[in-house]
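To start, one record:
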Amino acid sequence: MRTTRRYGHILFAAIISLSLILTTLAPAFANDLSGKTVTAVTVTGNSTVDIAEITKVIKLQPGDTLTPDKVKQDMQSIYDLGYFFDVVANFTEVPEGAKVIYTVMENPVLNNVVIKGNTKVSTDKIQSLLGVTKGKLLNTKQLNDNARAIERYYHDQGFILAKVTDVAMNSGVLTITINEGNLEGIAIKGNEKTKNYVITREMKLKPGEAFNVKDARRSMQKVYNLGYFEDVNMKLNPGKEPNSVVLETSVIEQKTGMFSIGGGYSKSDGMIGIIELGDNNFRGTGDKVKFHWEFGGEASDRNYEISYTRPWLDAKQTSLGVTFYDMTNEYTDYYNGGDEKSTYDKKREGWEVTLGRPQSEFAQNYITFKHRTDTHVEDVDGPENYSTMPDYLEDNFGLTNSVTLMHVYDSRDNVFNPTEGNRLSLSAEFAGKAFGGEFDFNKYTFESRNYLKVGRSQTVALRGTIGYADGHMPYTGKFSVGGSDTLRGYEDEQFKGNKMLAATAEYRFPVANKVQGVVFTDVGKAWDGEGYKLNDLEASVGVGVRVTTPIGPIRIDYAQGSDGGKTHFGFGGQF
């Protein structure tokens, strides 16, 4: 007598699930073998699998009482070894009781492996995860476990919809079919001004490719970082095809255009009017335009600055920025102690052209061509009168033609209020008389910004900057430290030189809705001459407030330095 449990041909669903429900052993025990004593337990049918590996999982032993449950448990244990596609239990009645014979049918020997449907993970990687070896007996338990490992690897890479949909064995050839989960389309909602392509071109996800949740998260960050939207949300909707989705992107637009009319007063020019208009999302195309015009007074009737930026010139995301300017403004130079050295009017005119292109997901390269003339117009105030210093004017005012190379790595989660990631930048400006200018110098700057999330909504922000320059550089082109952007508690550009060091640490925390508090310390200075004078660094500590308004962030800082306390007011974030 015998009982048998077949698990199907080796094209089996059993590879996908080794959950085996054995039927009762009614035929085996029809002659009432249940309760008899087991006299022997043997295994037959194995030619490759060592008998010891099989017998070690068999619990039924000679001398035990024969029961259907014990036989079913042994058959399950033998099958769970993974080497067999069928296990049969035979019984022979003897005067002393009953003999139990387990007959196994081994899986075929693996000759080849074929992977289908993979586009995002290499065939070699999938085969390594399968862990099967050609020329050896196929182990379906290992195969099932490793099929799950393939899915876990896909999910770890962000392909959360990926599945192993079919496993088939035919004539020694194992075929694994994978469905990576398709992005069927992208639906944009909520944009009234912004063109759809301005949003979709920022996305790493493309319709027709496998959906990746990490790319979706990064795409949402990039769309938000455009600065055109108050909020960006994404959700997945089922697609028409099996295991496919449609990514629905909802945006809430904010004002990107600006128009302002104001005025100012200059000792030399008297009252002047100011008109400024621009749009960071011009006509919904993502282009940036800005026009600044100052009128009235005596020297300001030609004051203007025009800039235009196109972030996408081609499919490679080549960017173009152009600026033209002709501005006469009042400037103040300081002694190291913060006392006024000279206040004067300076005219700057020229143009700059910047080209950029991504190097990788987070890295960008730029090249800038600058043609700028700085002209001393007249002295206004101060103990030193530059008009009486012809050698000084010749050394520090004139035409600068230069080329600047810049590399930026930026992994910040939010460029407007970062809480994680970092931004590294390295720039090198080369100005030479060979370019037609009057100055010949090299200027190098490295800056590192790092952001660490503390708790749910606090952030520690760190920034360090180092600069070095050599050659004949005009005073206006030197490194400057001091003021709201570098060293709070001191005058704007109080320290200038051909070398500089500056560092800032800020602890940022929420105070109320759209209001953020800041505790900070700044360290830094700029010098002329050789070497960095670390024992001569200036420092300050202070507190500040950041308020988000419809016209952008407003910041107010109070810092205490060696020269006393000073309040700074400005627009935009500190860094």
User: Anything to note?
Assistant: The first helix runs from residue 51 to 55. Confidence is low (pLDDT under 50) at residues 1-28. The first strand starts at residue 2 and ends at 6.
